[in-house]
Design brief:
Elements (H helix, E strand, L loop, with lengths): L5 H23 L7 E2 L2 H4 L4 E2 L5 E2 L4 H10 L4 E5 L2 H13 L6 H6 L1 E9 L2 E9 L3 H15 L10 E7 L7 E7 L5 E3 L3 H15 L6 H14 L3 E5 L2 H11 L2 H4 L6 H6 L1 H17 L4 E2 L3 H9 L2 E8 L2 E9 L3 H11 L23 E19 L2 E19 L5 E8 L6 E4 L12 E8 L2 E8 L4 E3 L13 E9 L1 H13 L16 E10 L12 H16 L4 H8 L3 H11 L9 H16 L6 H5 L22
Parallel strand pairs: 1-11, 17-22
Antiparallel strand pairs: 2-3, 4-5, 5-6, 6-7, 7-8, 8-9, 10-12, 12-13, 13-14, 14-15, 16-18, 18-19, 20-21, 21-22
Helix pairs in contact: 1-3, 1-4, 1-12, 16-19
Length: 629
């Protein structure tokens, strides 16, 4: 009989999982084919203590395994293929070894899978399935009464399979009998008594109807409210057999060891595992009866309840993940505010003085396994129970914070500027990160904003100009930026004593280059004279009249890339993004006033304030060829 309690409960759970997972995988395209289900899945309880100080656990890995298959859709309403529905129904009934399962499956007419907000129900209709469904009903009732019942049922049967809990597939078979009434598992005894009454009346034995009904009720009552407790499974099994109806008790194996050794038990368990392996989309199952026996060998505090057609069994085993649990507590439970939920587990009272913290030095726990079986299916759970927590009061260690500044110089290099330009250099390309370490381990990477830095020269006009060429400009940490970094670190409760080992005010952190020349110095000889105007006219002639390309023009002047672009930038004195005769004329005006007439004159006075600078040409002076228009 044990196979109808715990052993059969596990086997039933396995078979039911097959039906649920098969439908879930096909309908939702979920897969976990790389998972192997072995003995550890019976007892595995993930260890997780979150940083806020709460101990968390979940049900056993059966639950985790199938959750992925059913969380792929928030809402579902789809027809399931007839083959899939027949296969699922066949496996659901086959797990009870019901004769006629093939007939039931063959009679499936249609099936629908619906799901809303995480609840999934498969509805299957079976047409005119005849005595096969009656046999299923009889099998259910025989588990309570031990009776051998023959029922011939006709009509359409609807099976609603609730797959919401993943590990538990509930189902209810309902049918309309010849008397016009609807019967299901919950009231099948009414249908039975109607059939018995009809049969006894037909042979003139009405006086036996009450006697039969009384025997059925007596068997149900004996099995409806039984509680059993034991410290080992042999004692537990003996008490279980004693509590069974006599018709079942006399057929039970003598000991629990005999149950596990029974060929039928092993065969049925192997059949259930084989059914689950049929899907392959979920897992490869390697469980054996020996795996179950190993788990039960270390079981204690066994509790069981039988009532109203439901069997519930729980027992405790050693927590083989206790070291992992301790490591999790030691990582997170280090301050008083994270230990309040564990107070009931403390092995002694503790007083915490200022400057001290709790350190978890030991945790004792065990696992509690449970198995439930009823007319609606079977469940399996595994949870962890904390027995005690041992603490040590230790002085708060001083954390030594160190810092490292990493700067990526992303400022654009080699832009072209006239020497008098006041357009500010763009420092936004700097990517600076301050890494914080505690006792040598990285704690946090803090990005630093651009306004923490300044350049040695803010504009080209700020440079100490000494002729055409490349100027290297340093980027440094500003005093204001350094102060802001200190304030930020202190707000984050980091000690800044070692900060200056990595960063301090006026620290040079990057460099970038710019190319600077005088406006109008087309010949790049650091003077403004008639040669510049002549060169500008020659440039104009090749660009605008002869229609040379930039490459052809550069070859004609025999210049390298930098000098050619500098020449073009210097020639466009009015910032019109072209070089025309007006540019040459303005060069001659500027030269005549400053050199010939001796009247100091600025470029702004020659060409107008609106042409004081042209930021567009900083990127590529070859815009005068129209290539960037």
């Amino acid at each position: 009989m044990k196979k109808t309690m715990f052993k059969r409960g596990i086997a039933s759970a396995t078979g039911i999982l097959l039906a649920a997972s098969q439908l879930g995988v096909v309908a939702m395209n979920a897969s976990a084919a790389d998972v192997t289900v072995d003995a550890s899945y019976l007892t595995d309880v993930p260890v997780f203590v979150n940083p806020d100080g709460y101990m968390e656990y979940t049900e056993g890995s059966w639950y985790n395994l199938l959750s992925a298959a059913f969380t792929a859709a928030d809402a579902l309403d789809t027809e399931v293929s007839a083959d899939m529905a027949r296969n699922a129904v066949k496996k659901l009934f086959a797990k009870y070894n019901v004769g006629g399962a093939d007939e039931i499956a063959a009679a499936v007419s249609d099936a629908t899978l619906t799901g809303v907000a995480g609840q999934y129900v498969l509805t299957v209709n079976i047409d005119e399935c005849g005595p096969a469904v009656g046999a299923a009903m009889a099998q259910k009732l025989a588990g309570v009464t031990g009776a051998d019942i023959d029922m011939n049922v006709s009509g359409t049967v609807t099976i609603a399979i609730d797959m919401t809990s993943y590990c538990t597939v509930g189902y209810d078979v309902a049918f309309e009998a010849e008397d016009g009434e609807t019967y299901g598992i919950a009231n099948i005894e009414d249908y039975l008594m109607a059939k018995v009454s009809t049969a006894l009346t037909a042979v003139g034995a009405e006086d036996k109807i009450a006697k039969v009904a009384a025997k059925i009720q007596e068997a149900k009552d004996k099995f409806s409210a039984t509680e059993i407790s034991a410290t080992d499974f042999e004692t537990f099994y003996a008490a279980l057999v004693e509590a069974l109806p006599a018709s079942i008790e006399k057929e039970a194996p003598a000991t629990f060891a005999d149950v596990l050794a029974n060929e039928k038990v092993n065969a049925k368990f192997d059949d259930a595992v084989a059914l689950l392996n049929d899907t392959q989309d979920i897992a490869e199952v390697t469980l054996t009866v020996a795996d179950i026996a190993d788990v039960l060998a270390g079981a204690y505090d066994i509790q069981a309840y039988f009532g109203n057609g439901y069997i519930s069994t729980t027992f405790s085993i050693e927590d083989d993940q206790n070291a992992e649990l301790l490591a999790a507590f030691q990582e997170y439970y280090t301050t008083a505010d994270k230990l309040f939920e564990l107070e009931e587990y403390f092995v002694e009272d503790y007083e915490l003085a200022e400057g001290y913290i709790y350190k978890v030095v030991d945790v004792q726990s065990h696992k509690e396994l449970g198995c439930g079986a009823s007319m609606f299916g079977a469940t399996y759970t595994a949870t962890r129970v904390i027995d005690s927590v041992t603490l040590e009061v230790v002085e708060i260690p001083e954390i030594v914070y160190t810092y490292e500044l990493t700067v990526t110089d992303g400022i654009t290099d080699n832009l072209y500027y006239w020497s008098e330009e006041t357009v500010e250099f763009n420092l936004s390309g700097i990517d600076a990160v301050l890494s914080v370490y505690a006792d040598g381990s990285l704690v946090e990477n803090i990005p630093l904003p651009d306004d923490c830095f300044y350049a040695d020269a803010a504009t080209a006009a700020d440079l100490e100009y000494n002729g055409y060429g490349v100027y290297t400009i340093g980027v440094n940490v500003s005093q204001e930026g350094y102060d802001a970094i200190v304030d930020l670190l202190e707000t984050l409760e980091y000690n800044t004593a070692n900060l200056e080992d990595a960063i301090f005010a006026n620290l040079n952190v990057a460099d970038f280059d710019v190319i600077v020349m005088e406006r109008g110095d087309v010949s790049l000889d650091n003077t403004n004279d008639t040669l510049d105007a002549i060169t500008a006219l020659e440039l104009y002639n090749r660009v605008s009249v002869l229609k040379y390309t930039a490459e052809e023009t550069q070859d004609a002047f025999g210049l390298n890339d930098q000098d050619f672009r500098a020449m073009c930038y210097a020639a466009d004195v009015d910032a019109a993004q072209d070089v025309i005769t007006l540019d040459a004329i303005n060069m001659l005006i500027y030269y005549n006033r400053n050199t010939v007439m001796g009247v100091p004159t600025t470029w702004t006075e020659v060409i107008g304030a609106e042409c004081a600078h042209v930021a567009e040409q900083h990127v590529d002076p070859l815009v005068i060829f129209g290539v960037l228009n």
